[in-house]
Specification:
Distance between the termini: 25 Å
Helix content: under 10%
Order of helices and strands: EEEEEEEEE
Largest sheet: 5 strands, antiparallel
Radius of gyration: 14 Å
Number of helices: 0
Number of strands: 9
Low-confidence stretches: none
Strand content: over 45%
Length: about 100
């Protein structure tokens, strides 16, 4: 687990060595832990807390494809009322094609 500002935590599934699955959790005041974001099988993301520790409105994640496969990118958007992220755009980068996110995996 990687601590972000002592309130947010990344939990990683590093079974694959390159494109790991990341789960962002938040610890609430009553010690309840809630799931905010899952980034499946991606190698990079641009998640960064704001200057006052606030969540970013969008998170972009990309994978590192094997030779001959298309790179994938997912854009997640924060629902401020639920404080949870959902994918809003999924793209096969080399084909410059927007796809249904469920088709990527």
């Amino acid at each position: 687990m990687k601590n972000l500002e002592s309130k947010y935590f990344w939990v990683l599934d590093v079974t694959p060595s390159i494109n790991v699955t990341r789960n962002l959790l938040v610890k609430k005041q009553d010690d309840e832990v809630c799931h905010l974001l899952i980034i499946p099988e991606m190698s990079t993301n641009d998640f960064k807390l704001g200057s006052k520790g606030g969540l970013p409105n969008r998170v972009i994640a990309s994978d590192t494809p094997s030779f001959g496969f298309d790179q994938k990118t997912i854009v997640f958007e924060l629902n401020k009322s639920t404080e949870k992220y959902s994918p809003i755009t999924c793209k096969q980068v080399n084909k410059n094609k927007v796809v249904n996110c469920t088709e990527l995996f």
